[in-house]
Amino acid sequence: MKLYTYWRSTSSYRVRIGLALKNIEVEHCHVHLVRNGGEQKADSYRAINPQGRVPALALDDGTVLTQSPAILEYLEEAYPDPNLLPSDPVKRAKLRSVAAIIGCDIHPLHNVGPPNHLRKEFGRSEADVGSWISTWLGQGFAAIETMIGDDGFCFGAEPSLADVYLVPQLYAARRFDVPLAGYPRIVRVERIAAEHPAFRKAHPSRQPDAE
């Protein structure tokens, strides 16, 4: 399999964590999102992912999967050991709620497109853009802080899909200087994940294309 990825992309980071937790080795193909106007916009990459985004996972038979939630669901179904979702349907739903807050409500608003649109179309300053990002990150984190447990990872001693989403979002929060003092449970998860080999392996700073 091949993973089309960019070191600082939080959605790519999610998939790298999922792969590492399941001990799946893939070939990494690096797509630079800034160089030459963005390599994701090139026709050669659009032929792989028509949306022109990362990540994309090319399976051994040539099938290409896009969008990190779909890729992670595929990995969970095709490689169920270890499980990232509990068997109990209520627990699965609670865990997916945390993932959805990040994947649906927080991340889309600080991804490359919206901040650039604020800058170019509305003439907003970097301070305005930073306030935009902090607002949506803060609202999402405030909810998640009430939803996760007091010990271990988000929902217990072992990492789950919720942690796969949360840890990259914390990386983004620190990148954008979002205050985290009000989220001790979330910061605890980040601290525990930093000691876990799969999370360390997937960290942006450890990627070959890191700058």
TrEMBL record:
Judging by the UniProt lineage, the source's domain of life is: Bacteria
GO terms (molecular function) for this protein are:
glutathione transferase activity; maleylacetoacetate isomerase activity
- Domain GST N-terminal intervals: 1-83
Please give the GO cellular component terms listed in this UniProt entry.
Answer: cytoplasm
What does the record list as coiled-coil region(s)? none
Record Pfam families: GST_C_2, GST_N_3
Enumerate the Gene Ontology biological process terms.
Answer: glutathione metabolic process; L-phenylalanine catabolic process
- Looking at the record, the residues that make up the GST C-terminal domain are 88-211
EC identifiers of the protein: 5.2.1.2
What UniProt keywords are attached to this protein's entry?
A: Isomerase
**Family indicated by similarity:** Belongs to the GST superfamily. Zeta family.
What is the protein's given name?
A: Maleylacetoacetate isomerase
Specify the taxonomic lineage: Bacteria, Pseudomonadati, Pseudomonadota, Alphaproteobacteria, Hyphomicrobiales
Q: Which gene is annotated as encoding this protein in its UniProt record?
A: maiA
